[in-house]
Amino acid sequence: MGKQFVISSGHGDKVAGAIGILNEHDEAKRVVNRVYDILTKEYNGVGFKYHETTATTQNQNLSNIVSFHNGKTRDLDVSIHFNSATPAATGTECLYYDALTLSAKMSAAMASALGIVDRGAKERKELYFLRNTNKPAILLEVCFVTSEKDAVAYRNNFEDLCQAIAKVIAGHLGYSQKKVVGVSKPVSKPKKETKDTYYGKIYDQLVSLIDVGVYADVGFKKELKRYKKDTKINIEALVYSKSGVPRFLVKEKDTFAFVTANRKYVKAYTVDKK
Ligand SMILES: [Zn+2]
Predict the structure, then answer these.
(1) Which of 140, 156, 173 is the last residue of a domain?
(2) Do residue 144 and residue 194 come from a single domain?
(3) CB-based burial, 121-150: b 16+ in 10 Å, e otherwise
(4) Ligand 1 centroid – CA 269 distance (Å)
(5) How far is the CA of 9 from the centre of ligand 1 (A)?
(6) Separation of 28 CA from ligand 1 center, angstroms?
(7) What pLDDT digit, counting tens, does each position of 154-186 carry?
(8) Which of 69, 84, 90, 115 is buried most, with the most CB atoms less than 10 Å from its CB?
(9) Spacing, Cα 25 to ligand 1 middle (Å)
């Protein structure tokens, strides 16, 4: 069996964390949920997540969280918190019992994703969570709930932050990213044209010869819209579906989309640039 992780949010539904511009417990839950999804869906990670919901005292809350962690087979315990201080305090921290290297990496990764200062790794052997979990444990202080700057950085970079946290955990536990076909940045693979039905290399533009579908995925499962006959579109790349069918990659607003490369439906051509 591969290595497993447990990740939990600090504090609980009935035991509030810090509340400033951000609510610590609410945001910690969001980060835990997203990081868990990334590790288990986008990576081949296996683990558990936990949010404490029943305790009415801080001691009971801490005890419930640690019991959940210690009850699982795992190689790493992760707790998500947010810091709180004066409005001027800013930056990321990662607290540890003995995982110094991992903590330093984590704090730096969060700082880089959020674009705020890296306050670094801090040894905190007295903290209940770090002291009582019996596997290597780290406690992330994502940013300051009391800082306007940190709150804005956090809201604007939530996905980058969660990806950065997941990447550090994945690196530590030896997870690898799953291969996804037809994601947003396919690499164009120009090949010589072999099949007459399809275009086999990239051109500058295409014009639709009939109404054609524009799809969110290279497999043409989700249609976004249709181009009417005679629509001209810039081509970004030529990509291939899982079964090897060529598609043209085009830009649709801020995202990429896929259009047929079948000569019956579109005409592709090079634009003369002078
Ligand atoms: Zn906290």
Answers:
(1) 173
(2) no
(3) beeeeebebbebbebbbbbbbbbbbbbebb
(4) 58
(5) 9
(6) 9
(7) 999 999 999 999 999 999 999 999 876 555 544
(8) 69
(9) 8
Residues with CB under 5 A from ligand 1 (ion): 10, 17, 81
Whole-angstrom distance, CA of residue 260 vs CA of residue 246? 7
What is the CA(171)–ligand 1 centre distance, in A?
A: 25
Residue 215: what are its φ and ψ, rounded to 5°? -115, 150
How remote is the CA of residue 175 from the centroid of ligand 1, in Å? 28
pLDDT in tens, 88-111: 999 999 999 999 999 999 999 999
Asked if residue 37 and residue 158 are part of one domain, the reply reads yes
Whether 149 and 189 share a structural domain = no
Q: Are 37 and 79 in a shared domain?
A: yes
Q: How far is the CA of 67 from the centre of ligand 1 (A)?
A: 18
Give me ligand 1 centre to Cα 3, in Å.
27
pTM (whole model) above 0.85: no
Give yes or no: residues 134 and 188 share one domain: no
Q: Kindly state whether residues 37 and 165 are assigned to the same domain.
A: yes
Helices (H), the chain: 24-37, 58-70, 100-114, 128-132, 148-156, 158-173
Tokens of 227: 């181009």
Token pair recorded at residue 184: 């947003």
Domain range for 235 = 182-274
CA torsion sign for 220, 225, 231, 235 is negative
Alpha carbon of 10 to ligand 1 centroid (Å): 5
Residue 99 alpha carbon to ligand 1 centre in Å = 19
The answer to whether residues 202 and 75 belong to one domain is: no
Q: How many domains does the chain have?
A: 2
Q: What are phi and psi of 73, to 5 degrees?
A: -80, 120
